[in-house]
Amino acid sequence: MEEQQIEKIEETVQEPKDTLGDFMEICESIIISIFVVLLFFTFICRPVTVDGSSMNPTLQNSDKLIMRTFFYTPKAGDIVIVENDESHYYSGDDNSELVTGPGLDKRLIKRVIATAGQKVDIDFENGIVYVDDKALSESYIKEPTYLNTGAFDYPVTVPEGYVFVMGDNRNNSTDSRDPHVGFVKEEDVLGEAVLRFYPFETFKVLD
Questions:
Q1: CB–CB of 148/177 below 8 Å?
Q2: How far apart, in whole angstroms, are the C-alpha atoms of residue 159 and residue 185?
Q3: Any residues with CB less than 8 A from the CB of 65 and at least 6 apart, and which?
Q4: What distance lies between CA 182 and its chain's CA centroid?
Q5: Which terminus, N or C, of the chain has the lesser number of Cβ atoms within 10 Å?
Q6: Is position 110 annotated as part of the catalytic site?
Q7: Among 110, 142, 173, 176, which one carries the catalytic annotation?
Q8: Beta carbons within 8 Å of 167's beta carbon, 6+ residues apart
Q9: Of these residues, 8, 29, 54, 106, which one is catalytic?
Q10: What is the pLDDT of residue 9?
C-alpha cells in the first residue's frame, strides 16, 4: 500500500520551470518573426502609397498598395512602380538612336502598355492607343488619350530591355509620352502593384 502511494506521489512530481529558458525561447521566437517579416517586405512585397491622380479612376491619391517584387517581369496591363531617375527616348526623326536624358527623380506608378519589341502608335485626334496595329480596349482609363507631350514621333517600337507606360488618367499623367520619362528600363521597374489594402472599404486585388 505504501509503495503504491509513493508511486502516485512520484508520478505527480513536476520539474520546476526554467523561467530564464522560457524567456529566452520567447525572445528567440520574436526575433525570428521580425526577421521573417523584414525579409518578406524587403525582398518579396512592399507597401507603397499613391501620390497624385495620374492613375484615376483605377487608383486614388493616398491609396495604399502592396507591391510584389520577387521574380517579377513586367507584362502589358500590369500596374507598376518605376524609378524615374532618367529618361530614354529616340533622337532624330528616324527613331534610330536611343538617348538618355534627365528624369523627374522620383518614383511613378503607371500601367505597362507595351513591352520590348512591340510597336506603339497613338491617334491623339481620336484618343486611341494601338499596340502592334491593334486598338487597345481600355475600360480602365478615365478618358481617351488626347495629350501628346512630345517624347516621340509615333509609331515607335519599344527597344529590348524597356517598357512603355502610361497613367490611366491619360490627359493628366506624366508618362512615356513625356521626354522626362520616355521608355522605362525593365531594371527600373521596382515591382507590380497587386493589392489595395487602404482605404479599407476599397480593399481590392488589382487586375
A1: yes
A2: 9
A3: 47, 48, 49, 50, 59, 193, 194, 195, 196, 197, 206
A4: 18
A5: N
A6: yes
A7: 110
A8: 54, 55, 109, 110, 111, 173, 174, 175
A9: 54
A10: 45
